[in-house]
Amino acid sequence: MDAQILAELAAIVGEDNVSTAPADKITHSYDATQKCYLPDAVVYAATTDEVAKIVRLANRRRIPLVPRGAGSGFSGGTLPVRGGIVLVLTRMDRILDIDSENLTAEVEPGVVTGELQRQVEKLGLFYPPDPASKEFSTLGGNVAECAGGPRCVKYGVTKDYVLGLEVVTPTGDIIHTGGKTLKNVVGYDLTKLFVGSEGTLGIVTKIILKLLPKPEAKKTMLVQFLTIEGAAKSVAAIIEAKIIPTTLEFMDAATIDCIRPTSPIALPENCRAILIIEVDGDAAMLDPQIARIEEIIQPFGILNVRIAAGHEESEEIWQVRRNVSPNLRRINPDKFNEDIVVPRSKVPDMIRALERISTDYGVPIVNFGHAGDGNIHVNIMVDLRQEGMAEKVETVLDEVFQAVIDLRGSISGEHGIGTAKAKYLGMELDVATISYMQRIKDAFDPNHILNPGKIFPDTKSSLPAKAGSN
Q: Are residues 156 and 244 in the same domain?
C-alpha cells in the first residue's frame, strides 16, 4: 500500500491507529477457520465519522475494505481474501445507553456480548442471544452474522433484538434504520437487511437492541438416552406439550464417546444421546415445569435424569457441554466445523445420514447442538497430513450438505456463508434468488470494495444452482 494512502489513513485516525507491521497484519489475517490472508494495512477506528472517512477513501481508491470485530467467526467472514484494509472496530466499545423504561440498549459495535449481558442484568434486564463466543465476540459481529446460541429456541436470534442501526454504507454515507420503538413500518425494513449481511452491505457503527425483563430463576436438567431417536422424540413431545424451554441442547453418541473420560458426570457406555434442558421464569413455576418435562419424556428410552438443585449443580451439567470442544482434537488434529439446520423432527434422520457418511469415508464426525431448533454442529475430525484427506473432506462436505437439503434444511444456521460455504450457495438457493441478492450488493456497493469475496462464489460452482420456478 503506497505511502500516500497510509498518510491519508493516519490523518483520519492518527498514526498510532494505522499499522503495516507484520505482527498486526498476521493478527488480523485469520479467523476460526484457521485460513490466513494478509491485509495490506490494519486500521483501528474510534468513531462513526472516522469509519465514514475511511470508507470514502477506500471507495475512491478502489481498496478492498474488511470490517472486523473479534475475528471469531467460523465461515471466513472477516478474512481479507483480496488484501486491502482490515478496519478493526474494537475501539468502538461503549455502551451508550441502557433504557430501563423502554427496555432498550444502544451500543457501539465493539462491545463484547457477555459484557452487555452482565451490565443489563445488574438492572434486572436481559439480553437473550448467547453465542458460545459471547465472552469475546462483539455485538457488531453478532449483528453481521445474526448470531444465535442455545437460548434461541425460546428467545430467538440476534435479528429478533435489533431495533435500529447506524450504518456507514460502502460509498461512505451514514444512514439510520429503525429506532427505539417496537413498531415501525416506515419504508423498507433495512434493519433486517443489514443483520446477517456479513459486512458486505455496510459497516454497523451503532446498534439499538431490545431488552427483556430478567427471568426470576432457572432450572437445569441433564437427560441420558439409550438412542438418538428417543432424544429427538422427547424434543418434539416437549414442544407439542406447549412447553418452550430456554435451551434444548443435544449430544450424539460420537460426542459422548469423546467426552466420557473427562465428563464431571458419569456417562455409561449405553448412553447414546444427551439432552440438556433448561427452563426459566417465575421461581414457583419451575419445579412443576421440570416435573412435567420428566413425565413427558419417560416413554422415550430414558437411561438417567439429573436435575440441578442449585447453581453449582447447574454449572456441573453445563460443564459436560463445555467439555466437548476441548476434547475434540483427542480424535484428530484438524476440525471442520459446520452448522446445519433441519426441521426438529428430522434430527434423527440427519444424525443417521452423518453416521453413514462417517462410515462410508472412514472419517470421524462428531455432532452436537441445539435440538430445540434443529441446529446441528457437525465436526468432521481428520488429520490433513494424510495423503488425499483434504480432497476426501470436500467430498464429505458435499454429501453432508446434500443430505441437509434433501431433508429441507439449511446449510448454515448461525455461522453465515463467508468464504467457507460460498461454493454451496446454489445448493439451497435458486438462480433467481441469488441474482436478486447480487443486485442488492451491486446497488449498495457499486465498486465492490466492502468485504469482497464473501457469500457469492467468485467463479461458477461445480454444484449446480437449483432451477428457479417461473
A: no
> What are the b/e assignments for 202-231, b being 16+ CB within 10 Å?
bbbbbbbbbbeeebeebbbbbbbbebbbbb
Contact 407, 346 (CB under 8 A): yes
Is 360 contained in some domain? no
Residues 203 and 283 in one domain: no
Q: Considering 197, 213, 229, which residue would you say is the last residue of a domain?
A: 213
Give the integer Cα–Cα distance in Å for 372 and 154: 9
Q: Exposure pattern of 96-116 as b/e (b: 16+ CB <10 Å)?
A: eebeeeebbbbbbbbbbbbbb
| Res. 238: pLDDT tops 60 | yes
Distance CA 168, CA 174 (A): 5
Average pLDDT, the chain: 94
Count of C-beta atoms within a 10 Å radius of residue 5: 17
Whole-number pLDDT of residue 460: 39
Pull the grid cell for residue 294: 420428566
Query: Residue 467: pLDDT above 80?
Result: no
- In a domain, residue 380? The reply is no
Q: List the domain range (segments joined by +) for residue 99.
A: 95-213
DSSP type of residue 328: H
In a shared domain, residues 205 and 100: yes
**What is the pTM for the complete model shown?**
0.93
Look at residues 376, 407, 381 and name the one whose alpha carbon lies nearest to residue 393. Answer: 381
pLDDT tens-digit series, residues 91-109: 999 999 999 999 999 999 9
Instruction: Give the domain CATH number at 192.
Output: 3.30.465.10
Asked if residue 246 and residue 206 are part of one domain, the reply reads no
Residue 337 lies in a domain: no
> What domain count does the chain have?
3
Closest by CA to 71, choosing from 170, 137, 2, 123, is 137
Judged by DSSP in three states, 376 sits in strand
Is the pLDDT confidence value at 459 over 80?
Answer: no
